[in-house]
Structures are given as C-alpha cells and as structure tokens.
Design goal:
Length: 195
C-alpha cells in the first residue's frame, strides 16, 4: 500500500471514530472494521490470489478500500452491498478519493438478496460485517457461492461473541470448513472451505 492510500485510510478511520463516539444508537454509527482486522482479511485476499470478493455491510467504504487495494494486486474485483443508500453514496466517494473505485462494485441492497443472486461456486472470499443474527440464515447460500478453498471472514466474532455463536457453531459442525478465531481487532472468525 502506498503512503497516500495509507493516509486516506487513517483519516477515514479517525473520522469514523469521531463520528461514532457520541452516538448512542448503534445503527447510526459507521462501525468501521479495525485496521488490524481489515489488514488480516486483505492478507487472505492476496494469499489466496482471490479475484472475487463479496462484502456484506459496506458502511462508508472503509474496509472496502482495504479489500479493493488487495484486489488491485490480484487483478480481481470487490462486490460490496449495504442496505443504507446514504452509506453507498459515501462509500463510492471514499473509494474514489482512495483511487480504488475501479476495483469495486458498490451496491445498494440487502445482503441476503445479493447472496441469493450470486452464482454457485463463484466467490473466493465472503466478508460478513452487517447484522450478525442474520448470518445463520445466510448459511445455505454461503456454502453454495464459495469456491473450493474459498474463505469466509466474519468480523466482531470476539466483541460480539454471543451474537456470532450460532453461526460459529454451524461453520464448525459439518467438517466442510477449517475454522479459526483470530484475536485481531474485534475478532475475526475465518472458515476455509476444505470439502
Ligand atoms: C459494521 S457496519 C460495516 C462496516 C464496514 N465493513 C467497514 O468496515 O467500514 C454494518 C453495515 O451493515 C449494513 N447492513 C445492515 N443490514 C444489512 C443488510 N441486510 N444488507 C446489507 N447491509 C446491511 C448497515 O447499513 C451498516 O452500514
């Protein structure tokens, strides 16, 4: 990552923290992923040479910038979706400012519907960073859309362990995924599809 992009990301992250600080309503907060969590997932994108990444929960595009930068290296593309139209507009502007707009499709819509419309075995890595109780319902489509050795990454798996527990259990229960919980940022749960 070049210095200018690192500065854009640092400024955006600090702005997000300042924005969220005084807000009591969780849904009004931008809730950006921590830089360490975004760096870990970006490393997975590069290590897998992922070319197709789907993020559910764009917010203002902070994590999307990290992933789009990694996908610039791999020759791939990010699809990221958010249910809030204002956030989609903000994300597009931030991706443009960061110089990585061309590596991302930012969609306004529901994550479940986006997953349902995603072809079988077409995605290298899925990032879940939206409303955690919904992830269990995503499960059949997540299994369907991931390529062999595709990766699932779930943020807030330590900070909101109780809300991710049922999904964690599903991921670990069927022997299809090699599961690991990384104590990075707010906790990143990963599953690599091995069967
Ligand atoms: C934790 S924030 C995402 C943070 C973002 N990944 C980042 O690091 O900057 C969660 C986002 O999920 C969005 N969201 C909530 N429910 C959704 C759904 N069903 N489909 C798509 N997005 C959803 C919210 O509007 C919110 O912007």
């Amino acid at each position: 990552m070049d210095d200018q992009l690192a500065r854009v990301l640092d400024d955006l992250y600090q702005e997000g923290r300042a924005h969220d600080g005084p807000l009591a309503d969780r849904l009004l907060r931008l809730r950006n992923m921590t830089p360490d969590a975004a760096r870990l997932i970006s490393t997975l994108i590069r290590a897998r040479r992922a070319t197709s990444v789907l993020e559910i929960g764009t917010s203002n595009g902070y994590s999307a910038i990290w992933f789009a930068d990694a996908l610039r290296d791999t020759g791939g593309r990010l699809t990221t979706v958010d249910i809030d139209a204002g956030r989609v507009t903000a994300a597009l502007a931030n991706l443009e400012k960061a110089g990585v707009r061309e590596y991302a499709d930012v969609r306004h819509g529901d994550g479940a519907e986006t997953l349902a419309g995603t072809p079988d075995a077409s995605v290298d890595l899925v990032v879940l960073d939206a409303e955690r109780p919904a992830y269990v319902d995503y499960w059949p489509h997540l299994r369907r859309v991931l390529k062999p050795y595709g990766i699932l990454a779930v943020d807030n798996a330590v900070s909101h362990r109780d809300q991710v527990a049922a999904f964690h259990g599903l991921l670990a229960s069927q022997g299809e995924f090699a599961v690991a919980l990384h104590e990075v940022g707010d906790g990143v749960l990963t599953g690599v599809r091995v069967r």
